[in-house]
Amino acid sequence: MSQFDSPKNTPEVIEHCFPVCSADEVLQQVQTADAKVIVTVTSLIPMINEVLKDLSSSLCVIVVDADNERPGLSATWTTWSEMVNSSEIQQKWPEVSPEAIAFLPCSSGTTSERKMVARTHKATVAGVAMTPLLEHDGVNVVISNLLCHAAAQSFTLLGLTSGANCLILPSRDPHKLIEVLTVLEPLSVIWLCPSPYFSDLNPLVKTDDLKSLRSIVCVGCSFAPAAVEEFLDKMPDRDAITFTCGFGMTEASPIIIPQKNNLDPTVLGYPLPNTELKVVGADGKNLGPGQAGELYIRGPQVMKCYYNNEEATTEAFDGEWFKSGDIVYYDETGMFHLVGRSKELIKCNGRSVSPLDLEIALTSHPTVREAGVIGVLDDITVEKTIAFVVPKLGMEIDIEELERFVSSEVAPHKTLSQIIVIEALPRNSTGKIIKRVLKERYNLMLAEERISARPSYR
C-alpha cells in the first residue's frame, strides 16, 4: 500500500506501508506524512475503512485491483482503471528539484519506534546509480520480497534502468520461487531478504531447479552462512553463481557497502564510489585501523532528514555526517568489518558481546531455522544473553545440546544465559528481527511465569 502527499504544484511523494500493519500503525503514518491519497488493494479495504473513520479530513482512495463493478467500494473511492482513463490526469510533469523529497520510507524500527526517512530525488538517483547489483542488462529478475521498503524501491528502479524483466512474487513462498526458476531462461537473478528464506528453500530445491540461476542478491537483513552455503552447494556450477549482499540502511538509500561472494556477515567490504565513511569513538574522535567505533556516513545518497521529526534528525547528524548506530572497524586495506548495532551490543562481565556472533553460531546448528539474541538486565544490573530460536520444519531442538554446541563455537565470555524455543521471530518488512518485541515477549513470559530467570554467571 502506498500513500501520496501532493502539495500544490509539486510532484507526489511516495510512502509505502507494510501490508500487515495494523490500522493504528497506518493511521500514524498517514497523519505524520499528511497524506492526501491512499493507493491500496481490495483485501485491505476493511483496514482502510478503520483508518479513515479516525481521520478528521477526507482522503482520496484508489483501489488497484477492483473491477468496474466496484464491490465493497465507497462511492467516493476510485479504481485504478478509472483513474488512468480520467481526463483530469495531469499531462505535464512539474519541474522537480533534486533536493525535493521523493520517498518517505520508514526506518527499520528494530530497537526503537519507526521514523519516516525523507529521501530526496538526488539521494534516490545516487543510490541507484552507485549500486552495481545487476551485472547484465535485460536479465530476468525474480523479486521474492514485499515492495514496501527502501531496498525494494531501489531494486525496482535498478530493474527499470537496466532493462530487466522483473517478476514480483506475491509472497515469500519457496515453492513458488522454485517453480519460477525452473522456467526462466537463460539468465536469472533472485533478490530476496535472506533470513530465514534459505533454510526454507534447502529441503525443497534440487540442482536441476537452479540451471538458469546466475546471481543472488540479498539485502535488508543478515543471513545465516550455513544455510546459504548449503543452497550454493546445490548449484550445477558453484563458480558460475554470484552471491551479493549489501550493507546499508534506509537512511542511505539504502546500500553503502556491496560485497560479492562473501559468506561472513561480519565482513562488509569497501564503500561505494562517492561514499565517505569514518569510525568515531565514544569521545567523538576519529579512530584508526582495527579500532571499533560508530560508523559515520557522508555521501549523496544520505537522507535529508527524518520527516517531521526535528529532534531525531538533530540526534542523527554530526554536521554533514550521518551517525549510523553501527559499530564497525576497518583494517589496513580499508575493508570494513561489522561488530554490531550499538543499541544491541550486550555487556557481559565488562566485555561487549555482539548478538550477530551468537546468531551465526546458533543458525549453523542443523536443527535451528532462525535465531535472535537480546540482552536483558538481571537483578544485579548485569546483562545476560537470551536467545530465541525457531526449529527447522519437522525437527526438535535439544536445548542443552545446543548450548554445548554454541559454547564450542564462540569465545567463553559469549556463552548464552538462556535459550527459548518459539514458533517464529518477529520481523519487519525487510526481514530484520525486531529486537524490542523480543524483549517485550521475554518480560511478558517472565511475568506470566512461563519461563524462569536463570542466573547470568559465566
From TrEMBL:
Residues 358-432 form the AMP-binding enzyme C-terminal domain. SUPFAM superfamilies: Acetyl-CoA synthetase-like. It comes from the Eukaryota. Signal peptide: none annotated. It holds the Pfam family AMP-binding. One of its GO terms (biological process) is fatty-acyl-CoA biosynthetic process. It is found in: Peroxisome. InterPro entries: AMP-bd_C, AMP-bd_C_sf, AMP-dep_synth/lig_dom, ANL_N_sf. One of its GO terms (cellular component) is peroxisome. GO terms for molecular function: long-chain fatty acid-CoA ligase activity. Residues 19-307 form the AMP-dependent synthetase/ligase domain. Keywords: Peroxisome. This is Uncharacterized protein. It comes from Bemisia tabaci.
